[in-house]
Amino acid sequence: MVHDASMRIDQIELREIDLRLRFRFETSFGVEQDRRVLLVTVRGEGGEGVAECVAGEFPGYSYETNETAWSVLSDHVAPRVLGEDFDTPAQLLHALRFVRGHNMAVAAVEMAFWDLWARSLDLPLWKLLGGVRTAVPVGVSLGIQATAEATAELARQHVAEGYKRVKLKIKPGWDVAPVRAVREALPDVDLTVDANSAYRLVDAATLRRLDDFDLAYVEQPLAYDDLVDHAELQRQLRTAICLDESIHSAEDARKGLQIGAGRILNVKVGRVRGYTQAKRLHDVAVAFGAPVWCGGMLESGVGRAHNLHLSSLEGFVLPGDTSSASRYWDEDIVEPLLDAVDGVQQVPQGPGSGVTLKRDLVERLTRQVATLTK
Ligand code: OSB
Ligand code: MG
């Protein structure tokens, strides 16, 4: 495709599809199995770009849901960008600065625009983003199980498949026992836990007990909107804290690292409003010498491909939550299939995100679709 530098956005498609996870995924904030995946397609200059909005079926991880994202996108974002020309994704993001919060909704359009832009240049996204690697070591995030023994068995199976790191979801009353069981079964595994904000500073003594198990980090132990108590907790823990829910921007990352609220950051493109902000955040972390890794939101292959491109950036030195598509779905909605081999995922090499939708399958799974034009 030949065009001048700027791209006009002619159409935005919102499409919600139904996908069922191959497992029940329980965290401290709820249970998921039936996923409603919101796909956002941006069309212009004869091409299209696609991304996945990672807002949830319920407001458990963040306040954003499929419904809030759909409404913000159709009522506020689309009217502002349809018919407009943008030279770069940063310019598009700038046009959307009037939207406070709703990062997952904004990110979906920003990421779809990056995909459209990269495809128009016939470049894979990772190159356009400035990535340095095309093979990404991956870990697995295991939900809360019925027993500690079942957790250890599941961890053992995933390590046997090659996963480079095992993360266990924990909550008060479900922490030391599963961690001990897994550590005893797998003495050398790279092991972490994720509390999804389930603890408070008064639980510091319980969290300190986790120091005995040589964890690579404890992810988001305290409140979703907190940095101050995390800094106090970090002073009391030997284990590194990794921040997830608390970090929504490069500025949050700077503040969190500056006060010692954690030593490691989980980066989710949707949570931080898109690639432009994710890259800034990554640069802040690198400047602080803090390792980062790419989080996951139980995405379809669309979101997962984007996550792999993000993971190509230099500072993503720890295994991400970008495990195999075949683990999540009986049939994923994209080609090629994004499966890890020996715990390593390849960054897709085609133009843009490098994956294409299986149109017929997506059509069959569609629960609602809206085509927005000026
Ligand atoms: O906190 O990292 C999290 C899934 C949904 C919401 C939040 C989180 C997660 C995961 C799963 O841990 C990661 C994945 O496999 O996509
Ligand atoms: Mg997390």
What can you see in these coordinates?
With 374 residues, this protein is of the alpha/beta class. It is built from 13 helices and 17 strands. The chain has helices spanning 66-81, 89-95, 103-120, 125-129, 148-161, 176-185, 204-209, 228-236, 250-258, 275-288, 301-310, 325-328, 359-365; strands at 7-8, 11-27, 30-44, 47-53, 85-86, 135-137, 140-142, 166-169, 191-194, 218-219, 241-243, 264-267, 292-294, 334-335, 344-346, 356-357, 366-373. A 7-stranded parallel sheet has the order 7-8-9-10-11-12-13. Helix 1 packs across helix 3, helix 2 (89-95) packs antiparallel against helix 3 and helix 5 crosses helix 6 (176-185). The longest helix is centred in the N-terminal third of the chain and has 18 residues, at 103-120. 2-succinylbenzoate (OSB) is lined by residues 61, 141, 194, 196, 244, 295-298, 321, 323.
What structural keywords apply?
374 residues; alpha/beta; 2 domains; seven-stranded parallel β-sheet; four-stranded antiparallel β-sheet; 13 helices; 17 strands; binds 2-succinylbenzoate; binds magnesium ion
